[in-house]
Write a structure and sequence with these properties.
Elements: E1 10-16, H1 31-44, E2 48-52, H2 65-80, E3 87-90, H3 94-103, E4 107-110, H4 120-127, E5 130-134, H5 152-169, E6 177-180, H6 189-197, H7 199-203, E7 210-211, H8 217-223, H9 231-243, E8 248-251, H10 254-268
Parallel strand pairs: 1-2, 1-8, 2-3, 3-4, 4-5, 5-6, 7-8
Helix pairs in contact: 1-2, 2-3, 3-4, 9-10
Length: 271
């Protein structure tokens, strides 16, 4: 059994050091704001902090290396001195990943699963850190232009396993890998729902599954709520995925998610 399966859930608190993220862009754009927000999420029960300096919302423009490092590295450095929980950096660039690891990060969350930078597997292997490999297609600028699948579960599974093979070939240990089917990334609303309802098929691939549905637009599609009103919908997605075997949840609302998962765990494993 993969060692990570020994714990029943992990909550990643989102720390967006960006001016343009779809939900909280600009709220924590300075180092001081981001650090205090991260510490607040730790107090709310986060198991990890997921720190990102580049928005990957649909249509977002790619950020230069220097600017991304200037946003995330000081935050990682400061947080590493003030909390003991693992720090994860959300980046597709190997040079940013290395700088973040040097500053204290022990996890990398790559939304391209190595597609954007072929050096990423080597950075992960050399540093023996954990990595979240997320499924996506194209780039944030073009990923939502008529995404199509023959079978979204089979297609995403196949493409994720190809990414896993690349990282394993580079020397990344199996127990360091978490997979993410990429809700909202080159996916239609119905694709996202299929992923949530069949998370067990991704778990069956043999790696812990991370789900990042928090506040996303497909929730608005079904609930007719803007991002600020999507907490209940976000929690419903977490619950559905948890009961289908997902163990990692990347969320904005840590306290509410942790409380709900504690209750779901208590009910599911009662007796």
């Amino acid at each position: 059994m993969h060692p990570v399966f020994e714990k029943r859930f992990f909550v990643l608190g989102i720390v967006n050091v960006t001016p343009d993220s779809f939900f909280d862009g600009g709220k924590y754009a300075t180092t001081a704001q981001a650090v205090e927000h991260g510490l607040s999420l730790v107090g709310d029960g986060a198991d990890l902090l997921d720190i990102g300096g580049e928005s990957t919302r649909p249509g977002a423009m790619l950020l230069g290396v220097e600017e991304e490092m200037a946003r995330v590295v000081p935050v990682v450095s400061a947080l590493s001195k003030r909390t003991s929980i693992p720090l994860c950096v959300d980046t597709t660039k190997a040079i940013v990943a290395q700088a973040a690891i040097d500053a204290g990060a022990t996890w990398i969350n790559d939304i391209s699963a190595g597609r954007f930078d072929p050096k990423m597997p080597l950075v992960i292997s050399k540093n023996q850190c954990h990595v979240i490999l997320m499924h996506s297609r194209h780039t944030p600028q073009s990923m939502q232009k008529a995404p199509m699948y023959d079978d979204v579960i089979a297609d995403v599974s196949k493409e994720l396993l190809c990414s896993v093979d690349q990282f394993r070939f580079a020397g990344v240990a199996r127990e360091k890998i978490v997979i993410d089917p990429g809700i909202g990334f080159a996916k239609r609303a119905e694709d996202n729902m299929a992923i949530l309802s069949k998370c067990d098929e991704f778990s069956a691939l043999g790696f812990p599954v991370c789900i990042g549905a928090s506040r996303k637009s497909f929730i608005g599609f079904f609930t007719q709520r803007e991002a600020a009103g999507r907490l209940a919908g976000s929690l419903a997605c977490v619950a559905a995925a948890f009961y289908k075997g997902a163990r990692y949840f990347r969320v904005h609302d840590v306290k509410e998610t942790v409380d709900m998962l504690k209750m779901l765990e208590a009910v599911k494993y009662h007796g």
